[in-house]
Amino acid sequence: MSLRRSSQAKRCPQCLVHQDNCYCSQLKKLELRTRVSLVMYKKERWLPSNTAMLAQSCLVNSQLFLRGLPNEKLTAHFLDQENYQPLYLYPSDDAEELTTDVTKRYDKPIHLIVPDGTWRQTKNIHQREKLLSDIPRVKLAQTPPTRYPLRRQKYEFGLCTHEAISYALGVLENKNVQDLMLENLDVMVAAHLKNRPIFEKEKIHKGWSVKNQTKRPL
């Protein structure tokens, strides 16, 4: 067995990090009125640094659609408009800032639909998924800088998907939900940083203190 294959065999099948650093049991589960659906580019599914999968692990009322698989298409069942009012979280020119006043217009629970992938991939989802074309677009108000160090953001104001969902739920639900979601992100980051040399930890995430300096493959 190759070293690479052996490393993959030792990963947690859910969080995809080395089993010694699996953080699944530390995550706080949230059962919310708001439904969250992720439209994810297929290759993101197996990247340990993907935070959309973290969000799905935390949120009981959530679902995932992998875009790019053969013979798989979004359907009306995915939207469930009979029971939910869908809103599409994407900062397009016609997107409205997500506020409590926006949510008060609807008499149904909100179904927050979130694209996940690179900026180019999410733009393709926005432009090409016909089922989503008539759904109201919403965007976040100004947020704090990203706290996620495992991927470099293309834009100064960029957030990881989990952060974007967290801040949206802060509006749709409450601040406590937002804080619990961000705490779960911190748990994920801490688990990943245990796998990296201490000098790299200091470089990409100053302030973290991790005793175990042993480098293991993610």
Textual characterization of the structure:
This protein has 218 residues and is α/β, with parallel strands linked by helices. The protein has a single domain, classed as Alpha/beta knot (3-Layer(aba) Sandwich). 32% of the residues lie in helices and 14% in strands. It is globular. The chain starts with a helix and ends in a 14-residue tail after the last helix. The model is unreliable at 1-6 and 198-218 (pLDDT under 50).
Strand order of the largest sheet: 2-1-5-3-6-4
What does the largest sheet look like? Answer: 6 strands, parallel
Number of helices: 8
CATH architecture: 3-Layer(aba) Sandwich
> What is the distance, rounded to the nearest whole angstrom, between the alpha carbons of the first and last residues?
18 Å
CATH class descriptor = Alpha Beta
H/E element sequence: HEHEHEEHEHEHHH
What distinguishing features does this structure have?
218 residues; alpha/beta; six-stranded parallel beta sheet; 32% helix; Alpha/beta knot; disordered C terminus; single chain; 6 strands; 8 helices
Helix-strand blueprint:
Elements: H1 3-9, E1 35-41, H2 52-58, E2 62-67, H3 76-79, E3 85-89, E4 96-97, H4 100-103, E5 110-116, H5 119-128, E6 137-139, H6 161-172, H7 175-193, H8 198-204
Parallel strand pairs: 1-2, 1-5, 3-5, 3-6, 4-6
